[in-house]
Amino acid sequence: MYDVELRAAGDQGRSFSSGQFRVEEFRLPVFEGRTPSGKAALVNVKAVPAEVQLNYVAGGPAANLPVRVSALVRGKSLNFPDYEAFSFQPPRGKRETGNEGEEEATATQDTRVIADKLPLTLDRNGAGKLTIEPVPPAKQPRELLLEATYADPNGEVQTLRSTSTLWPAGVIAGIKTEGWVSAAQQIRFQALALDLAGKPQAGVALDVKAVARITTTSRKRMVGGFYTYDNKTTTRTWAASSGHQRRTAACCCARPSSASPARWN
C-alpha cells in the first residue's frame, strides 16, 4: 500500500494526504486476440457478422476455445471539421404533452443490448464467426460495440472489444441556418449532402421541410403553495424546398406570419 502526501517547503511545512493506491500482481496473459470488423460500410443492415480470432502469445491458434459474444448499440454524434456550423441530427420525434418543455434528444444517449453472451466455440484455427441479429433500425448513425469474453489460462477473464458505425443511409444530410429572424421574413439556409467519409456529394436531391414547434405551458397551484407545470407541444409544417446539390446548396424559404420559433429538420 502506497500513501501520497503533499508537503509544504521547509521543516515546519504542513502535509496533506491526497490518497492511497495498491500495486497488484500482474499476470501475463496466455492468449491474445482481436475482433476484426469488415471493411464494407454497414448501411441500413438487419444483421451484422461478428468474428473472433484468438492465438497463443507464444504462437499458434487457440483451438476449440469457448467464447461469449455480446453486442450493444449506442448513440454516435457526427462532427466534421470542415462543416462544424452544420447540424446533422435527425428530426426530433413528436411529443404532445410533458413536464420538461420541448422534446429531449435522447436518441444519442440511448443504449440497447442486442446480443447478450452468445456462445461461440472457435475452430482449430482459433477463429469463430456468428451473426448478430436483429439490428434495430434507427434514423441516425449509431455505434455498434462488440465484446468477446473468454477465460485465459492465467486465471483471468479477458475481454476483446471493437466498434463500428451503423448508418441509416449512404448519404449524410446536414443543414445550417443563417441566424435567427423575425416573423414575415425569409429564412436563408444551406443544405448539404456528404458521403460516409464526410466528403460532399454532387447531384444529390435534397428536400428540406420546416416545422414550427409551439409549446404551451400552464401553471397549476398545489396544496402547500407549490406549483406544477404542464406543457403541450404542437407542430406546424411549412412549405418545403427542394433542389440538387452541386457542392453546398443555398436556398430560401418564406416564413408565414407567425410568432412561433422555427426548428429545421
Strand share of the residues? Answer: over 45%
Mean pLDDT: 80
Q: Helix share of residues?
A: under 10%
State the end-to-end CA separation. 57 Å
Low-confidence stretches: 96-105, 257-265
Evaluate the radius of gyration. 27 Å
Molecular shape: extended
Strand order of the largest sheet: 4-11-10-6-8
Order of helices and strands: EEEEEEEEEEEEEEEEEEE
What's the β-strand tally? 19
Number of helices: 0
| Major sheet attributes | 5 strands, mixed
Which structural class should the secondary elements be placed in?
mainly beta
What does this structure look like?
With 265 residues, this protein is mainly β. It has no helices and 19 strands. A hairpin with a 5-residue loop joins strand 10 (142-151) and strand 11 (157-167). The chain is extended.
Fold blueprint:
Blueprint: E1 2-7, E2 15-21, E3 31-34, E4 42-43, E5 48-56, E6 66-75, E7 97-98, E8 111-121, E9 127-132, E10 142-151, E11 157-167, E12 172-177, E13 186-194, E14 205-208, E15 210-221, E16 227-237, E17 241-244, E18 249-254, E19 262-264
Parallel strand pairs: 4-11
Antiparallel strand pairs: 1-2, 3-5, 5-9, 6-8, 6-10, 7-16, 10-11, 12-13, 13-18, 14-17, 15-16, 15-19
Give a short overview.
This protein has 265 residues and is mainly beta.
Main attributes of the structure:
265 residues, 4-stranded antiparallel sheet, 19 strands, extended, disordered C terminus
